[in-house]
Amino acid sequence: MTPSSRRAVLAGLPALAAIALSRPAWAQAPAAAPSGPHSLPPLPYAPSANEPHIDAQTMEIHHGRHHQAYVTALNNALKDHGQLAALPLHELLAKLDEVPESIRTTVRNNAGGHANHSMFWPVMGGRGGMPSGELAEAVNRDLGGFDRMKTEFNAAGAGRFGSGWVFVTVARDGKLALTTRPNQDTPLMDGQRVLFGNDVWEHAYYLKYQNRRPEYLNAWWNVVNWDRVAERYAAAKAGTLGV
Q1: In whole angstroms, what separates CA 130 from the centre of its chain?
Q2: For the segment 148-168, what is each residue's pLDDT rounded down to a tens digit?
Q3: Would you say 63 and 50 are in contact if contact means Cβ atoms under 8 Å apart?
Q4: What global pTM score does this model have?
Q5: How far is CA 216 from CA 46, 60, 93, 135, in A?
Q6: Where are the domains of the chain?
Q7: According to the annotation, is 66 in a ligand binding site?
Q8: Is 114 annotated as a binding residue?
């Protein structure tokens, strides 16, 4: 490098530093275009937004590494299967029987992981509390009220052996139901729709809660964004809810 070019690089460093400092600490540089039809959705809030109930480091690792790994593996599995790659994620999961056996397990695990987490991030980042309006009426009607729903949801999540999820599903007529699934399975595989759910894989809580899954499940309600859940409820009734 010549002296003049070295001076030019050094002169530009303050400007680069200013750009870096102006970006929120949690914002990532724009990612390269995905190598397939599926991509990692950005977090709709800072990783620290769920503190102290879910720590920022867990959020960063969970979103940027675990979820990204599902997306990457799914794209790799679908790279030679154009028709499957063109399907919306919820349709792909509902048609697993049509996926070639050679990639079916990979698609099941990773499409499920992608769908579950794409639902998971937006229903958090809130301040807890309770649902209201039409959603609260549905919770009272179908799940015995908020307190009973919370108790049974937590018990189902704690009782899910190994890794998995606990969900509240929503039908087109607005009826709610509580269910669990192992691994990265999802009610979408049965043609159902998920209103909201919680991840009980250890990577979702172990840095803060270690083996205390019930404590994590109870704390999680403090970060639920009921406005977003209500939007999902309205979309389900309108027939427009995807994952």
Answers
A1: 21
A2: 999 999 999 999 999 999 999
A3: no
A4: 0.87
A5: 20, 17, 28, 24
A6: 55-243
A7: no
A8: no
